[in-house]
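User: Let's play a game. I give you a shape written as tokens, and you guess the letters that built it. Ready? Here's round one.
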């Protein structure tokens, strides 16, 4: 019985991590648009694909709505594939992606009031990935991902 419970817990944990990983990492840079589509799935208003810059170490994808408000999505190209390192936009457009993929117990009103979500540390490819969701200015929010060694060097 204990083994069954342990296996069930392990399966649930592995499945939760797999869902998170799909939201921030893909092995092929062509899949950057798939992660962007996950982010944009809950956007309010009529957003449309605006631009994509694909550089050697970075991929930037922008979506714009009729009011000319932009959601910016930034990926880093790493040896393993592509990694979501930043999304900037309005709270009501980013919160569903954050809640679905990173903080399922997040309370929309409470998080908006405090101006920040949980700081998550996710083991990834032998390193620790730090992901967080925070308010940036009056009406902009961002989701940021970075490796733990990068966060220390920026302090």
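Assistant: Ready! My guess for every position:
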């Amino acid at each position: 019985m204990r083994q069954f419970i342990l296996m069930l817990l392990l399966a649930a944990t592995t499945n939760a991590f797999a869902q998170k990983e799909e939201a921030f990492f893909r092995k092929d840079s062509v899949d950057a648009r798939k992660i962007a589509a996950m982010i944009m799935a809950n956007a309010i208003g009529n957003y449309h694909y605006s631009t994509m810059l694909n550089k050697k170490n970075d991929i930037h994808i922008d979506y714009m709505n009729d009011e000319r408000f932009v959601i910016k999505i930034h990926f880093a190209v790493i040896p393993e594939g592509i990694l979501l390192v930043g999304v900037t936009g309005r709270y009501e457009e980013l919160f569903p992606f954050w809640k679905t993929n990173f903080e399922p117990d997040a309370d929309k009103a409470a998080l908006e009031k405090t101006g920040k979500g949980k700081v998550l540390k996710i083991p990834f490819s032998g390193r620790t990935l730090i992901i967080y969701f925070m308010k940036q200015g009056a009406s902009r929010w961002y989701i940021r991902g970075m490796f733990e060694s990068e966060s220390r060097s920026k302090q």
